[in-house]
Amino acid sequence: MNTDKKHEIRAKLITKLFPYLRKNGLHSATMEEIAKVMEVSRATLYKYFSTKEEIIGFIVAGFIEYMNELTNSHLESDQSFGTRFQQIFEQSISLVVYFTDNFIKELETSYLEWYDRFNEAMKQREKYLLSFYVEGIQKGIFNDVSGKLLIAQDEILRGMFNVKYLMTNQLTIEQILNDYYILKKVQLFKPDKLSAVDDAVMKPKIEHLTQKITKNLY
Fold first, then answer.
1. d(Cα 110, Cα 94) in Å, to the nearest integer?
2. What 3-state class would DSSP assign to 136?
3. Per-domain residue ranges for the chain?
4. How far apart are CA 67 and CA 182, in angstroms?
5. Which class for 57: exposed (0-12), middle (13-18), buried (19 or more C-beta within 10 A)?
6. Cβ-proximal residues to 145 (8 Å cutoff; 6+ apart), any chain
7. Band of the pLDDT at 27, cuts 50, 70, 90?
8. Angle at 175 between CA 15 and CA 25, to 5 degrees
9. CB atoms within 10 A of CB 189
10. Which residue among 15, 20, 71, 85 has the highest number of C-beta atoms inside a 10 angstrom radius?
11. What is the spatial distance between Cα 43 and Cα 20, in angstroms, rounded to a whole number?
């Protein structure tokens, strides 16, 4: 089996594991339990992942690569700032959904090497975001708001992506994502620069995020 095909199958197996991982973590799970969640035999699981640490490593390495994709591109126009804002928004949501407080704590206590790598990648991401916000302010595209505050603001979503919270407040995932997207956009872009953001591009992405988050919550 070629490397690309193996990576594709591993990614599909991990996708099946995410809802379980979000609710239970992996520390106490056996490989047999993980195989059941992934809907494969234990023998098949061992073909793709030999240990729980390898599973964790695949997840963390994948997200580090995902974060690096954002920091390796360049900005040239107002529209580029709009596109990058949307990519940052999408990435921020994914990080909040998949890297829960419990999962990060499990990384720190049981998989320290991967915790350190993830932590370093998050520091580099924050450094990039802060420079992105500063550049946007300097070019007259963004309002002069604190980048640190914009980054910290995303943490409020952790408490919202919770079944009890949604039911108590009669909210839907899609409603939260749409409202939060509008809030972030209006906070960041100056009124005469809002046209740099193509909301039509974001609509299917929010729908896709809604499906992923719902699948992981229920």
1. 23
2. helix
3. 1-50, 64-217
4. 23
5. middle
6. 133, 187, 188
7. confident
8. 30
9. 21
10. 85
11. 20
Residue 73: per-residue pLDDT:
63
Same fold for the domain at 1-50 and the one at 64-217? no
Total count of residues recorded for the chain: 218
Instruction: Write down the CATH number for the domain with range 64-217.
Output: 1.10.357
pLDDT tens digits, 96-124: 988 888 889 999 999 999 999 999 999 99
Question: How far is residue 155's CA from residue 93's CA, in Å, rounded to a whole number?
Answer: 10
d(C-alpha 129, C-alpha 102), whole Å: 25
Q: pLDDT category, 76, cuts 50, 70, 90?
A: low
- CATH code assigned to 1-50: 1.10.10.60
* Measured CA angle at 178 (ends 156, 93), to 5 deg: 45
Under 8 Å between Cβ of 89 and 124: no
User: 23 Cβ partners below 8 Å, 6+ apart?
Assistant: none
